[in-house]
Structures are given as structure tokens and as C-alpha cells.
Amino acid sequence: MSKMDALRAMREAKYEAARAGRSGSAATPRTRPPVAPRTSQKAAPAATDEPKAETDGLCGHRNMSGRTCTREHGHAAKSHRYS
User: Fold this and answer.
1) What is the phi-psi region of residue 60: left when phi exceeds 0, alpha when psi lies from -120 to 50, beta otherwise?
2) Cα distance between the two ends of the chain
3) Are 53 and 59 in contact (CB under 8 A)?
4) Which residues of 51-77 are buried (b: 16+ CB within 10 A; e: fewer)?
5) With contact defined as beta carbons under 8 Å apart, do 81 and 71 qualify?
6) Most exposed residue of 37, 58, 63, 73, measured as fewest CB within 10 angstroms of its CB?
């Protein structure tokens, strides 16, 4: 049997299984497994996760490597300058 014949046979078997599942048989509906409810939701303050920049009027935005933006706070430029 060639590769294409095998693929055709698998496709036809899948089609027949789907067709048999639709007609007459009482198939069980698919349901999601139950999920345990969360018992408590701790809202960790963001200030403790990362230290804020010094209060010298800098933007303080951090990039992925941890560098901080050296532009003034609230700058209009779309990009940041990291150092």
C-alpha cells in the first residue's frame, strides 16, 4: 500500500466514524473537566515586585534585561533610552 492509499484509508475511516457517531448512537456530549474554584485571591502589590526608579524624575520603564529608561518621567517619545 502506498503512502497516498494509507492516507486515503485513514481519511475514509475517520469520515465513517464521524458519520456513525452522528447517526442514532447516543454519544456522550463532550464536557470540560471540573475545575476547583480558587480559595483565595492574593493581590500582590506591584511595588514589592520590582523596585521603583529613584525619585529624580526619570521614566523608570524597565526592559526585559532589567535596564531602566533614562528619559524624563512622562516623556512624549515613543521609544525609551536604556542604560
Assistant:
1) left
2) 64
3) yes
4) eebeeeebbbbeeeeeebbebeeeeee
5) yes
6) 37
Contacts of 55 (CB under 8 A, 6+ apart): none
Three-state secondary structure call for residue 23: coil
- Take residue 70 and report the three cell numbers written for it: 533614562
pLDDT 10s digits, 44-62: 555 544 555 455 788 888 8
The percentage of residues in the chain with a pLDDT greater than 90, rounded to a whole number, is: 17
Q: How many degrees, rounded to 5, is the angle at CA 35 between CA 31 and CA 41?
A: 150
Give the span between the Cα atoms of 18 and 23, in whole angstroms: 9
pLDDT tens-digit readout, 10-25? 999 999 988 887 765 4
